[in-house]
UniProtKB/TrEMBL annotation:
The keyword Coiled coil applies. This is J domain-containing protein. Keywords: Coiled coil. Residues 9-74 form the J domain. Pfam families: DnaJ. GO terms for cellular component: cytoplasm. PROSITE patterns: DNAJ_1, DNAJ_2. It comes from Heterodermia speciosa. Residues 85-120 form a coiled coil. SUPFAM superfamilies: Chaperone J-domain (SSF46565). Residues 249-272, 289-318 are annotated as: Disordered.
Amino acid sequence: MAPCEVTEDYYATLEIPQNATVEAIKKSYRQLSLARHPDRNPHNPEATSLFQCLQRAYETLSDPAERRTYDLVWVSIRKRKTVQEESEKRQAEASKNERNRAAEERARRLKEEAVWWEQLVQLEKQKSEYESKIFEGSRVIRNLSATLKRLQERDDEDLRKEAERNSWWTFFTSPIYGKQAPETEDQRRQRAFHRIERLHTKSIKEKELIQEEANLNNLKDRRDDAVTKIAVLKQKKENARLAEEARVQERVRKEQEAKRQAEAKAERERQAKWRAEWEAEAARRRKEEEAKRAARQAKEAQEAQEAQKRARAAQEAEEAQKARLAQVFEKIAREAREGAQAAKKKEAQEASSRTFASTQSLCRHNAFWPKIEGGFTCSNCRSPQRHFAFKCPGCAMIACASCRQTLRGERRRKRPSKNVNVGLQYEDYDYL
């Protein structure tokens, strides 16, 4: 029976109930054949297959005998169709839910990505601002330090000059021995004023330096905090990416496992279906044979004897057929074994030939080549040798007589035959 006849619901194909009459079947077929004809559906790639299935449905249901046979399996077909439709519906709902979940997940990831980028840009901006302020603060601190250094150098210079004026060396080396020009009151006041002014300036600059250093340290702390937050944010992003990859891998693994289980289940169902069909066919055949046997037993004795003869003849023919099949199978198996052995031998010879070819440049082939009996293939000219060949003792290369002479670089020299009755044979030649 064709696959369409086994799996298709012909009543659903013709859009009629199971108890429809022949007239209803014909009427529905005429209407549907006009609507589903491939010529009227040129853009539908399945129009031809659908129309052919419609024809099979009409041919099956319009014939009473075929319809009765089909009705026996229609219930199981209907059940399978119902289960298949429910399964397809569940799969469609699951696919829809999966698409919705994927869309929601994608929207959530996009939103999180936008928030992450916004936070990262804000932190990078803060970091840049802090670094700019740190650079400016460092410049101010360098200027203040340079100013304080200059003020301190001037104080040190004044102290050095004061000590030099009051030293004994200045006293003895003065133009007027032991006498120096006295410092005026204005000079003392001016020197004191400058010293006080420098002290005041140093005090102010030192306070400014302390404040700027505190501000600089604060800015560095804020900058480091921003850098830490950026690192944490990036690490969070990386962790999210790794988690997403793990989820995707787990989902793919589950999908593959579900697919494998579904395929295994489908294979089990297919095998069970095939086994059930085979058993049903075997049971049908057994019933037919029992019916025929009962009919034969009801006939007259002569007809029974003839039937027994025919049965014996059929059995003998079957046994002969089995014997022939067994011989054929044995022949096929033998040929397969011989082919495998020949292929293995050929492969070994080819491998040996490759090995010989790789070592041929190292072997001079000038030793005595012993003769080996059996069928071989020449490694040089690839010609088959049915009875014997020659084998190089140096590299184990197999060659015919002509190739052996060529490989050894020798010339053929005739010598007197030891056996005058036999004539020229292999021993009649000396290969130098």
